[in-house]
Write a structure and sequence with these properties.
582 residues; six-stranded mixed sheet
Length: 582
C-alpha cells in the first residue's frame, strides 16, 4: 500500500525531503534558545555582566530569526509537497477509472468513487503534511530536549523519561481503540454521497412524487450515522488531553519542588532550572503533537486503503501485444458464445449464441426485459469479454483488436442517453472532435434532430445543461444518435435508443439510415415491432438464447413469441411494449 501511495509523490520528492530538514533546523534553533537564556540568567545577570547579556541576547535573536525562517520554509515546502501529492493521487485514480471495463465500473459505486477522489484524498493530504512536519518535528524536539535535560541534570530529567513512557503507553491503547471507529466512518460517507447524488440527479422525480420529506430523512439518517461514529472516535481520542495535561503539570510541580532543593544545595543554577522547565514543556508538547499525528494517520489509514484499491484496480480487458489496428468491414459473427457478468457464479446471461451478420445488414433485435439483448450487443464493441466462445468483427476476434480502434468503428447508442454540459456542437463532437459544423448538421438531419435544433434561439450553439436536463427525452435520444453517426462507424448499435421518439420520427430515422449509410451494419434493439419490421433480419431473444431469427414474414409463420407480440401491438396501441405479451 505504501509503495503505491509514495509512487505518486513524483515531482514533489525534493519538497518532501526539504520539509523535514527545515523542521529539524527549526527544532535545533528552539532547543538552543533555552540554553542561551539560562546562561544569561546564571552568567550575565548573576555576574552583572552586561556585555555578556547583550552578546548572548543578540545570538538569541539571530537563532530565533533563523528558526522562524526554517519554520516558514518548512511550512511552504510541506504545503507544496502535500497538495502536489493529493493532486497526483486524484490524477492516478481518475486516469485509472478511465481504463475500467464495465465489470470494474460495476465493482465500485459512483458515490464511493466520488468519496475516494475527494474526502479520502483530503485525509491523505492532511496526514502527509502532518507526517512531513509534525512527525519529524515532534520526535526530534523530544529527543533533543531530553538530551539537553540530561546534560543539565540527569536526576530531574529522569522525571521526563518516566512521564514519556507513561504517556506513550496510554496513547498506544487509546489510538488502538479509536482506529476501529475511523475505519468504519468512511464507508458511511459513501452512503451519504449516494443519498446526495441520487437526490440531486433525480430532483424532478422527487418533486413529482412529493418525496422531499423522505429524501430529507434519508439524508439526515446518513449524516447522523457519520456524526455518531465520529463522536465515538473523537470522545475516545479526547481522553488523551486531560491525561496529558495532568502529567504535564505533575512534571512541572515535581521539577519545581526538587529543582528548588537542588538550587538551595548549589547543585543547580536558576538559569538551568528555567531551561529544564522549558524543555519539560517542549517534551510534553511534542508528545501532544505526536498524538495528533497518530490520530491523523489512524483516520487516513482507511482512506489510504480505499484509494489504493482504485489505483491498483486492473481492467480485465487489455490490448493484445500486437493488436490489429484496422477493422476490415462491419460483419459480425458469434461462435458458441456464453457470457456471464461474474464467470463461475450462477447461470450464464447468454447461452449458446451462434450468429452471423453480413456487413451492411439491418438487424432488428427484440425480446422481453431480461432476455439479454443489451448483453449481446455489448460483446461486439468489447465492453465485456465472452466467458466462452468468441465474437468476430470483420472476421477477426474482437480480443485481437486495439480497443480504441474497435470502439471507434462500433458506435453504440446506449439505453441511458447521456449529454454533457456544453453546446449542442460540443456534445455532437464527442463522436468526432474534428467534425465540421456541416458534418454535424448532416448527422442531425439523419437523426431527425435538426427539426428541433433549428427552432432553438441559438441553434447549434444552444447550451445543454448537465445531463441534458433542458431537452426532452426524445430530443436527447436524437442528439445521441447524431453523435454516434459522426464517428462514421462500420457498425451502428441502437440499444432501444428511439423509445422516447414518436413512431413517425422513428420511421424517418430508419429511412435516413437506409439511404445515407447503406454500407454500415445496423443493429436496432427495440420493443416496438414497427421499429424492426423492415429490417433484413430480426432476432428474437428469450432468456439469453436466440429463440428465432428471420424476416418479419418468416417469423410471423415460424415464431410463436414474435407472432403473439405482433398481434398484441397491432390489436392494441401502436407503440405497445414487447413485455405486454405477459
Amino acid at each position: 500500500m505504501l509503495k503505491t501511495l509514495l509512487a505518486q509523490v513524483k515531482e514533489f520528492k525534493a519538497a518532501s525531503l526539504m520539509t523535514p530538514l527545515f523542521m529539524i533546523g527549526e527544532v535545533i534553533c528552539e532547543m538552543v534558545i533555552p540554553v542561551l537564556m539560562g546562561r544569561i540568567v546564571d552568567i550575565g545577570i548573576g555576574g552583572s555582566d552586561m556585555r555578556y547579556i547583550l552578546r548572548t541576547g543578540g545570538i538569541m535573536i539571530v537563532v530565533a530569526l533563523l528558526g522562524l525562517m526554517f519554520g516558514i520554509l518548512g511550512g511552504t515546502f510541506g504545503a507544496k509537497a502535500s497538495t502536489g501529492f493529493a493532486k497526483n493521487l486524484r490524477k492516478a485514480m481518475y486516469d485509472n477509472i478511465q481504463t475500467f471495463s464495465f465489470a470494474s465500473i460495476d465493482k465500485f459505486s459512483t458515490s464511493s468513487l466520488i468519496t475516494r477522489l475527494t474526502t479520502d484524498v483530503t485525509n491523505i493530504q492532511n496526514a502527509y503534511q502532518m507526517i512531513l512536519r509534525m512527525a519529524m518535528r515532534a520526535p526530534s524536539s523530544m529527543i533533543i530536549a531530553m538530551i539537553m535535560s540530561f546534560i543539565i541534570s540527569p536526576k530531574l530529567a529522569s522525571i521526563y523519561f518516566i512521564a514519556v513512557i507513561v504517556l506513550a503507553s496510554i496513547m498506544f491503547f487509546v489510538m488502538r481503540r479509536a482506529t476501529k471507529y475511523f475505519q468504519q466512518v468512511f464507508k458511511r460517507y459513501d452512503a451519504l454521497n449516494n443519498s446526495v447524488q441520487e437526490n440531486v440527479s433525480a430532483i424532478r422525480v422527487v418533486k413529482a412524487y412529493v418525496r422531499e420529506e423522505y429524501e430529507k430523512d434519508r439524508f439526515h439518517n446518513a449524516a447522523e450515522s457519520i456524526y455518531e461514529m465520529f463522536i465515538k472516535a473523537e470522545m475516545t481520542v479526547a481522553g488523551i488531553s486531560p491525561i496529558m495535561m495532568t502529567v504535564v503539570y505533575s512534571c512541572i510541580l515535581l521539577i519545581s519542588w526538587f529543582g528548588a532543593h537542588f538550587i538551595v544545595a548549589g547543585d543547580l543554577g536558576t538559569g538551568e532550572m528555567m531551561s529544564l522547565l522549558t524543555y519539560c514543556m517542549n517534551i510534553l508538547m511534542s508528545l501532544m503533537m505526536l498524538s495528533m499525528v497518530f490520530v491523523m494517520i489512524t483516520m487516513s489509514e482507511a482512506s489510504a486503503k480505499r484509494i489504493v484499491e482504485v489505483i491498483n484496480e486492473k481492467s480485465d480487458l487489455i490490448n493484445p501485444e500486437n493488436p490489429v489496428m484496422e477493422v476490415p468491414d462491419g460483419s459480425i459473427t458469434f461462435e458458441d458464445v456464453d457470457f456471464s457478468y461474474r464467470p463461475g457464479s450462477g447461470e450464464p446471461v447468454l447461452k449458446d449464441i451462434n450468429l452471423h451478420i453480413h456487413s451492411g445488414e439491418r438487424i432488428g433485435i427484440i425480446g422481453g426485459t431480461g432476455s439479454a439483448k443489451s448483453s449481446l450487443v455489448n460483446l461486439i464493441s468489447r465492453l465485456y469479454d465472452v466467458t466462452k466462445g468468441r465474437v468476430l468483427v470483420g472476421g477477426i476476434d474482437v480480443r485481437n483488436y486495439d480497443m480504441e480502434v474497435l470502439r471507434n468503428q462500433v458506435s453504440v447508442v446506449l439505453q441511458k442517453n447521456v449529454l454533457f454540459s456544453g453546446t449542442i456542437l460540443d456534445n455532437l463532437r464527442w463522436g468526432d472532435k474534428d467534425a465540421t459544423e456541416e458534418e454535424c448538421i448532416r448527422a442531425c438531419k439523419m437523426a431527425c434532430a435538426d427539426e428541433f435544433i433549428e427552432k432553438m434561439p441559438e441553434g447549434y450553439n444552444t447550451w445543454i445543461e448537465q445531463g441534458g436536463t433542458n431537452v426532452s427525452g426524445g430530443q436527447k435520444q436524437r442528439l445521441c444518435i447524431a453523435r454516434a453517426l459522426l464517428k462514421k462507424p462500420k457498425i451502428l448499435i441502437l440499444d432501444d435508443s428511439t423509445s422516447a421518439v414518436d413512431t413517425a420520427t422513428d420511421a424517418k430515422i430508419r429511412k435516413a439510415f437506409m439511404e445515407e449509410i447503406p454500407s454500415t451494419t445496423k443493429l436496432i434493439i427495440a420493443q416496438r415491432i414497427s421499429s424492426v419490421k423492415d429490417c433484413d433480419r430480426i432476432i428474437v431473444m428469450d432468456d439469453g438464447r436466440i429463440n428465432g431469427i428471420g424476416t418479419h414474414d418468416e417469423l410471423m409463420e415460424s415464431n410463436a413469441i414474435y407472432k403473439e407480440v405482433y398481434e398484441s401491438q397491432v390489436g392494441g396501441p401502436g407503440d405497445a411494449d414487447f413485455d405486454e405479451k405477459n
